[in-house]
Amino acid sequence: MEQLRQVVLVLIAVGAVISLAAIASALYEFRTGRLVRYPFRRKLPATPEDVRKNGLALVLNDLGVLLVDLIALSGLLLEGARYDPVLGVSYLTTGAAGFAGAFLSMLTSLHLRGDVRYQERQKPRMPSPQA
Known about the structure:
The protein is mainly α. 69% of the residues lie in helices and 5% in strands. A two-stranded antiparallel ribbon has the order 1-2. Helix 1 (2-32) runs antiparallel to helix 2 (48-77) and helix 2 (48-77) packs antiparallel against helix 3 (85-114). The longest helix has 31 residues, at 2-32. The mean pLDDT is 86.
């Protein structure tokens, strides 16, 4: 059981590091108004202002993910809450506030994404064979 707990801790920690990298790339988009090129994007924001709005939405969404990761990590790392009721209640209220903050952050991100105008990704044109 201890090995499973350690594997879960490592996976959540890796997820937190990945979400930090996503926040960094989203902040770049928000600050500069230029896209970070991802090959799996189907729709691209139409204007630099839309890129900034989309970048801010990505920052808020990734911040919510990071909050959930950190709350889960702190809950798994806390061993003393089983024996101390004050510590357990404080972790419960702090975790609930963190989850509420993550929910509001993701809800705001969803609202901001609704204001972004997107355009379809242009497929590269293959030259037609001239015979």
